[in-house]
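Q: Sequence in, structure out?
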Amino acid sequence: MRLFQPLIYLVISCLMSFCFLIGCTANLVTEDGGPASLVKSYRTVSELAQDADEIVEIKVNVQKTILYQEVPFTVSTVSVLNSFKGDHEKGDTIRIIETGGEYTPLDKQGNALPKTTMNFNGISVLQPNNHEVIFLSTFEGPQISGEVYVPLGVYQGRFKVDASGDLIQQAPDEEKVNDAANMNVERLSDTLHKLLRQ
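A: Exactly. Output:
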């Protein structure tokens, strides 16, 4: 899996650069990274759990957007509320990087264009104060150094937690994890406990 991560980001970066150039020529303010296929797609919670280095319940504290080869990446600093798998514990702070987010693109002369939000397949990156359960892989790439994680399946490994504790998948309908429908944090915790003991 670690060998595919640089390839994943290269493919995503190329797609986002292409979409960025199209968006700039059309003077768009909001961009969707456009339709793209995932390098690896997940269909079950078991598949996500198997590939995840960390599975954590988090709350987003702060964010910054960085540009790498004219493609925006959002780096979120999050607090761990609960850990289901991995080395991190409740109270730890970790960083998560995602392709896209809000940024100010520049034209060919280096002049600032209107602030733009770039999404990947219509799904936004983590937002401030988001409460989510997220399946993470260790990030290795040129965009940022240090200990950083990336959601598995770009967005397939992200589940927003609503006020009642229900999980809302952050993926387009056709790419949702099949056995995660109608799941809440408690049921996911039980499922992961069983899967990870095997």
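Residues 61 and 78 are 5 Å apart (CA to CA).
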